[in-house]
Design goal:
Two copies of one chain form a homodimer. The radius of gyration of chain A is 26 Å and the shape is elongated. Chain A has six helices and 28 strands. Chain A is α+β, with helices and mostly antiparallel strands. Strand 11 (111-116) of chain A pairs antiparallel with strand 23 of chain B, so a sheet runs across the interface.
């Protein structure tokens, strides 16, 4: 392999694949970035076995000559050093030449770097994925759906399936569900698929989805999502993002969500979040995060927290609507803040079916976004 | 105590004293911020015993009424919670009222916070410092001098005196010196004092000087520095910053600095720093930080580092001047980068007195700024 490539393009490509670089691998070859060059361009590949990312650099882009290819070939270079040194090279033109035994010379300006490369034949081959089970999702919608659900996945590795976001497709609707033992987040959207296209039990690590979110393009382009038996492939214009499907059976969460409410209230999203945030500051010092909501009458609620050592935070809020029985209910303020933060409306609707039953938070009654929090059992 | 104060002024004052807040105190009262209010304004005090900071809020500023005082008084409030909750209060007007047993009520908008305050009588009294040993330094000069030396203090707590910056004044010159076993940084400046004013063995923690630097005003105002037996007080317009002088005798470092050189070279500061930075990336992977400088002839030098596992980085640099014997010398590249980063000139002068003797880096031969690095003994 011998070529020159423009630094900014190489750096951009490195930043894409770097999400899949790990230093904690037991497979030495995976601590490297694989580089393939041929007459179509350069492809960089990195993998930590959970995620694999390929990024493609074309020969030219917008009439700029990006790559000058002298000889096709492949090599695997040690990630950490390669990533850092490329960023620090003095000139825009970077020459990469692979010699015998994969010894690689990188030249830029007056700097010359010799690197011990590894044999690309030892690098795992990306899985061939059949494209017959494929959907398309606008990039910004996918980002929003990840943001609205990923925070609610379980962090408990004892139940790996719950560390993922569940993808389901039925009746032309795509739904994301995330839950741990204390809360649930779900978001639904219409999607352009055949009416009989259905998807079940596909759970993808919440952490991985957050990594994907970072490299999803900001422009509203369509992302191809291809489902295989144990892998999902996200296809962007110059990036392929492979991730594995989590093992296990995702529990049925549909019965957790109450169908009717004993009490419903509507209140300003930001006002409620700010009041709970203040109470949270105190409750966090107590390491409980417990905040109490007391419904005073059909016009006002009181948000409070107290600490035996520090004191008390109290705040009265005017609600825009409150129907039903007046309740006193305690909950984890951190969970409530997480839920309120992803509401996309100035007002939120909160539904209660009793002091010990799930609390449901939605932008409005017809919303495709739903957050559920289990309350705390407290004595007063 | 009962008053209202504008949030932005209280927050600014809190941010000043917060540098002295510690959570790791064995003296419970010091985990609080002391607030004193009288007809002149409010004073906030925080102390971690090494540093004490007082910040003053006037009754009015630029024709804005900042404080409405209803009753003078004092209280100590738990720092962490107080700092966070003030920042999150909903309204610009904050009312603070201290009741019986120092129970404190904070009101802002619809939020009410009850806080268990502590008795201000238990709070340590700030030392009375006689102002007869006092100098004035422009704020920006003091910042620069701290930046040029503080990085070179020792981090080894076994020799506490070396963890400080040494202040000396003689012959109308103020000098900062910092050194550990491997490098030394010094910076001198003319100062407006009586000819017989002298200062010896005043070493102030480098960490403390960095904290001071953060609250020094950006404008070029004069800072009063008052020296007492075991304390130094920095007086800014509305802030008093007290710090203790480190115990022990600072070693005489004057003999470390060579008076003449065997070899001298002049080279572009940024060019050299960039080349060493690239070599550093590789040397850091080896955990040695060793970079080699080889003088090829009177026009060029080679900067390189190598790693048995990863490879080699080599770069040739054209120098603007090189006099004397051609040397091969190895040094800690991190130390060299630190030294080059604080040079205030496009070119640096580097002086050598042999491969195993101290390396001296200065902006020019007459400079008041000097950096010294001890080389490494290497085999090739």
């Amino acid at each position: 392999m011998k070529l020159t490539v423009l630094k900014e393009f190489l750096n951009e490509s490195i930043s894409h694949v770097s999400k899949a670089i790990t230093s904690k691998t037991t497979i030495p070859i995976l601590s490297g970035i694989k580089i393939d060059a041929d007459t179509t361009g350069m492809t960089l590949t990195a993998s930590d076995t959970d995620i694999s990312i390929q990024s493609f650099i074309p020969m030219e882009k917008n009439d700029i000559r990006v790559i000058e290819l002298k000889q096709s070939g492949s090599v695997v270079l040690p990630s950490k050093f390669f990533v850092e040194i490329i960023r620090k090279l003095p000139a825009q033109q970077i020459e990469i030449e692979v010699k015998d035994h994969f010894q690689t010379i990188i030249r830029s300006g007056s700097a010359e770097i010799q690197l011990m490369g590894l044999d690309p034949e030892e690098y795992p081959i990306m899985p061939g994925i059949e494209e017959n089970r494929r959907v398309q999702i606008p990039s910004d919608l996918l980002k929003t759906m990840i943001k609205q659900t990923a925070f609610a996945v379980s962090t408990n590795e004892a139940t790996p399936i719950l560390t993922g976001i569940l993808w389901t497709i039925s009746d032309g609707k795509l739904k994301f569900t995330a839950c741990d033992r204390h809360r649930l987040a779900s978001r639904e959207t219409n999607i352009d698929v055949d009416a009989d296209f259905s998807l079940n039990n596909v759970s993808i690590s919440g952490k991985t989805m957050n990594e994907l979110s970072k490299i999803l393009p900001d422009q509203n382009t369509l992302i191809d999502v291809v489902f295989a038996d144990n892998q999902v492939l996200f296809k962007m214009s110059s990036i392929l993002f492979y991730t594995r499907i989590l093992d296990g059976t995702y529990p049925d969460t549909s019965k957790l969500i109450p169908q009717s409410f004993q009490t419903e209230l509507a209140v300003g999203t930001q006002e409620l979040a700010d009041a709970i945030d203040r109470a949270y500051v105190l409750s966090r010092e107590e390491k409980t995060n417990i905040v109490k909501l007391v419904m005073r009458d059909d016009q006002s609620i009181e948000v409070s927290s107290s600490s035996s050592e520090l004191g008390k935070v109290t705040e009265e809020l005017v609600v825009s609507r409150l129907n039903g029985e007046l309740l006193r209910i305690s909950f984890n303020s951190k969970y409530m803040l997480d839920a309120l933060k992803v509401m996309d409306s100035a007002q939120v609707q909160i539904g209660f079916t009793g002091a010990m039953q799930p609390i449901i938070i939605r932008p409005d009654e017809e919303s495709s976004l739903l957050q559920l929090i289990l309350p705390y059992r407290t004595t007063n």
